[in-house]
Amino acid sequence: MESVVLVELDEEYWAGRLDKVAAWLGTVALTQSTFRRLAESAVDAVEEPHIRAYLSDVAETARRHERRVEDLYRVIGREPGRSRELGAAALSKVQQALGEVLGRAGGAKDGWNTLRQLLPVNLDAIGAFATVEQLGLALGLNHLAEAVFPIVREKETHQLLIQEFVLEMATQAILYEGGL
Q1: pLDDT category, 175, cuts 50, 70, 90?
Q2: Per-residue pLDDT reduced to its tens digit, 53-108
Q3: In total, how many domains does the chain have?
Q4: CATH code at position 24
Q5: Using one digit for the tens of pLDDT, what is the confidence trace for 99-124?
Q6: Rounded to an integer, what distance in angstroms lies between the CA atom of residue 135 and that of residue 4?
Q7: Number of neighbouring beta carbons within 10 Å of residue 25
Q8: Is 4 within the bounds of a domain?
Q9: What span, in angstroms and rounded, lies between the C-alpha atoms of 172 and 25?
Q10: What is the C-alpha to C-alpha distance for residues 35 and 148, in angstroms, rounded to an integer?
Q11: What pLDDT is recorded for position 104?
């Protein structure tokens, strides 16, 4: 780990800041794991081959981003927590249920609801990763910020892609009650 010099910060104070970053990384892991689970569900829910192929790529990238969170812990000299899988599974189910209720209330069917749910969940994960970037910059840990920057950009690209799929398939799902 590269050395950072900050005036009037003792080792205990610095360790406390890194502990706070590590705690936030737990949130990042939870939001990204939730997104990955929903992305995998969306692949299974969509029949249209082009959208399904793109979503498969999004889900694979989500798995890679999830693995990168563990690397971020090591950048700050911490070990990742192991309890996030259960939390992510529960949060994923809650997100799916809420998305179904909202989508069905508007008359949408099945796969489109799953696809639409990816938008807010990915946005939450984007914000979580972007916060790590800001924490890295605030603490002078440029290597932490630089490690997260490409993830944020890739997730933003996926957000636009998912939004395009949702809009493209909205009329079929709502007006014609068709599947995807």
Answers
A1: confident
A2: 999 999 999 999 999 999 999 999 998 876 555 554 555 555 555 555 555 555 55
A3: 1
A4: 1.20.1260.10
A5: 555 555 555 566 788 888 899 999 99
A6: 14
A7: 26
A8: no
A9: 39
A10: 17
A11: 55
The verdict on residue 6 lying in a domain is no
Q: Please answer whether residues 75 and 144 qualify as being in contact, where contact means their C-beta atoms are separated by less than 8 angstroms.
A: yes
Give the whole-angstrom CA distance, residue 105 versus residue 87. 27
The Cα 10–Cα 32 span in angstroms is: 33
CA angle (160 as vertex; 155, 22 as ends), nearest 5: 20
Write the CB contacts of 114 (distance below 8 Å, at least 6 apart in sequence). 38, 41, 42, 45, 46, 96, 99
Place of tokens 């749910």: 117
Mean pLDDT for the stretch of residues 145-158 = 98
Q: Residue 178: how many CB atoms within 10 A of its CB? A: 15
pTM for the model: 0.83
- Residue at 140 is within a domain: yes
